[in-house]
Structure formats: C-alpha cells, structure tokens
Amino acid sequence: MNTARHVALLILSVSALAACDDPAKAVAASEPATGGQLQEFSRQWNDKVELSKAGPLLQKYCTNMSGAACAPDAVGRLKHYGFSDGAAGVDLAYAFISMVADDKDGIADQKSSDQDFVHSCYRVMFGREPDPEGAAHHMAGLQGKGEEARRALALAFLKSPEFNSQN
C-alpha cells in the first residue's frame, strides 16, 4: 500500500473513532439510511437508541424534512425535545416530529396544533407533504387525544411500508 493511501486510511479511522465518542460528530459523518437500514430501525422501534450509532436514521429524518444534512445543533435540539441516549426509537421519531412541528408554528413549546403535527409526521418520516385524505384521517385520530395519540401516530408512520421502502 502506498504511503499516501495508508495515511488517508489512518486519518479516516481516527476520525471514525473520534465520532464514536461524540454523537454530533457521528451524525455528521453518516449518510442517510435507506431500505434495509430503515426496515431494521422500524423493527427495532422499541429498542434503545444510541445517538452515536443512529446517525444514518437522523440523517434520513433531516434529509426528509429539509432536503439537507442535519444541522450541527440537531443532537442538542433533540435533547431539548425530550430525547436522550437510550430512549426508544419511537421516542427519537416523536422528538424529531415535535421539533419540526414547533419549527412550523414558530414557537418552541412542544404544543403544536394537530395539523402542524400531522404535517410534520409526513415531512420527517416520508419527506413529503400529506395527501388531503391522509391528513384529514390522521387529524381526526388525534383530535382531543393528546400526547399518547401523537406517539401512536409517530409509531404508525415508523412502522409503515412507505417509511420502510424509502431510498
């Protein structure tokens, strides 16, 4: 192996090890999850999530919501929205959706309207706006039911065929 290539591999290895210690660096170094990775996250919705290992999923959520990689403060913002290392995968989805819903209504209070929450589910989980029938159906299911219904909706999106089949 030539020296330049060896040095490049060594730098990449050191960078990867450093990223393991810092969830924000691990997320930044990740490519968005696709197909099989999303299916695995979906199957493990109740398992504990370590942010340093979930970079591909976070990048998928960020790409879906904004068309770009996660901002450097994404991990910190998720903590503000109640997600901590070791929480379940559905809690990660819920925190992301709540964050986007608050961005949509402009108030960081985790008290978005059902409409903003449903629209944020579609944006974060599927990378698209809701179809009118789907939005109406999901908003009716949330009406007056509170946080548990919202968590159940986040789980339904996480386990859906549309989520699992994204590239």
Give your account of this protein's structure.
- The protein is an all-alpha fold and 167 residues long.
- The protein is built from ten helices and no strands.
- The radius of gyration is 17 Å and the shape is globular.
- Mean pLDDT is 86; it is low at 1-20.
Break the fold down into its secondary structure elements and pairings.
Blueprint: H1 3-21, H2 23-28, H3 35-43, H4 55-66, H5 74-80, H6 89-105, H7 114-126, H8 132-142, H9 146-158, H10 161-164
Helix pairs in contact: 4-7, 6-7, 6-9, 7-8, 7-9
The helix count comes to 10
User: Globular, elongated, flat, extended or rod-shaped: what is the shape?
Assistant: globular
- The fraction of residues assigned to DSSP E strands is under 5%
Name the average pLDDT: 86
Which residues sit in consecutive blocks of at least 5 with pLDDT less than 50? 1-20
Helix content: 55-70%
Q: Note the run of SSEs as H and E.
A: HHHHHHHHHH
Radius of gyration: 17 Å
How would you sum up the major sheet?
none
Span of the ends, CA to CA: 35 Å
- Structural class category: mainly alpha
Instruction: Give the total of beta strands.
Output: 0
